[in-house]
Amino acid sequence: MTPEQLGEDPTVATLSGVQRHEWLAKLHANHLPVDEDVHDVPMYEVSLGGIMGINDSERWVTIGTPIWVSLSLFDRGTLVWRVRKKDTLDLKVLKNVWYGGARASAPEAHRLIEGKHPGVACCDGFNVLFPGTASPISTNLLRGNLDPSPSKNRTLYRLLYPPGRSLFEACSELELIRGMRAALRGHEFLCSQSILHRDIGVDNILLSCDDELREGAEGFLIDLELAIYTGPTIEYRTLAPIRLPTGRVLNDVQVKHLHWTTSVANRGAPVTGTLQFMAAELLASLDDSLRSTGRPVQYVPVEHQTHHDIESFIWVLLYSLIRRVIVTSRQNLSAEEETWMQSLKMEFKHYYGQRAPDGILAQRSNDRPWKVVVDYPPFFSDAIRELIGQLSDHLEYKRTNPLSHTAVLDVLDIAIRRLSQSE
Ligand SMILES: Nc1ncnc2c1ncn2[C@@H]1O[C@H](COP(=O)(O)OP(=O)(O)OP(=O)(O)O)[C@@H](O)[C@H]1O
Ligand SMILES: [Mg+2]
């Protein structure tokens, strides 16, 4: 078997000792950090394959070890690296992903977006090709199985994003809330184009790494793998020549057709997202589906809607506020603060260590996670405690008043004003 058939990616090469030395010298000469590379970690040069001079121009060098390795055995095999572009030295995040069937979900979702928004990460997606050819790298071709049926095939893609940081690494509460607001505005922008993200979780909202930040660009959304388009399907058709009453004949008339379809998503599960941050109604529906086997009444799943994603933003905010306190805690806490911290860590484990939908729902039902912020005054500012109080009110009345972008953005704005004044 060839190295490729054994799983070696022909578009990736390990830097030799000399190449590595030259690369590090180049970084050094350009005043870029070299200590970010752990010394005995291999460095890889990654290309997009294809024919030299046509599509083989992009080259990237990896930094350190991957920042994310997907744990799911039979899914997209996601691998995420920080990389620098070989010629320009631009820092990016590169996602290696194997898409099944004919769909490359995130690149497709990004293609649907009209215009740009700072709250949604720009994503360049590329098919990876066998070097020297125009054939995409796919499991079918690697295995010498030329069965063209797309259902069993997986195709390799590389997606490039701007680098971000976790919400809970924010240097201040203000930075965290600004990042959340930017991402929520990004979400509103997507919804205005009938694109629903459906996987709002702490890993999919990032803080910007840019040193000079514009207002509104402090955070962004990533990972549109589960996004769906809920608007009409747009189809352009060229009509046969038309004769007008005046006798004039019009050729090549293009018409735009809008079709509404209910089966917008073909992704299997109707409920998507990360359990810890999922809206209560979706968790309940999921719980129902888990218990429904053998029941005489058929289970009807709840449709994932905009207000569910907005609710997830609130759960992400609460989680990130608490985790930030734990992650960024100082070394020299007083004895009293240390006791508070140990107790906070226990509560955090308790609330976010639940794995099943019913366990997560039970933890939320008694208001305890909200009270964590209220009950630990040394760790959270007044502005944040007030914000949390307002958001929990919004959640309480969501049945009669479904959560809206405006309502949540308004309370975030107030908190940002208060936090800015006290800085
Ligand atoms: N631009 C970025 N900056 C920093 N970290 C990133 C960036 N993009 C992705 N990551 C990290 O990689 C993780 C995985 O990326 P992403 O969310 O796009 O993949 P995924 O589709 O959730 O993976 P899976 O296939 O396992 O479901 C993110 O949760 C985040 O921790
Ligand atoms: Mg993700």
From TrEMBL:
PROSITE patterns: PROTEIN_KINASE_DOM. Pfam families: Pkinase_fungal. It comes from the Eukaryota. InterPro entries: Kinase-like_dom_sf, Pkinase_fungal, Prot_kinase_dom. Residues 68-412 form the Protein kinase domain. GO terms for molecular function: ATP binding; protein kinase activity. This is Protein kinase domain-containing protein. It comes from Ceriporiopsis subvermispora (strain B).
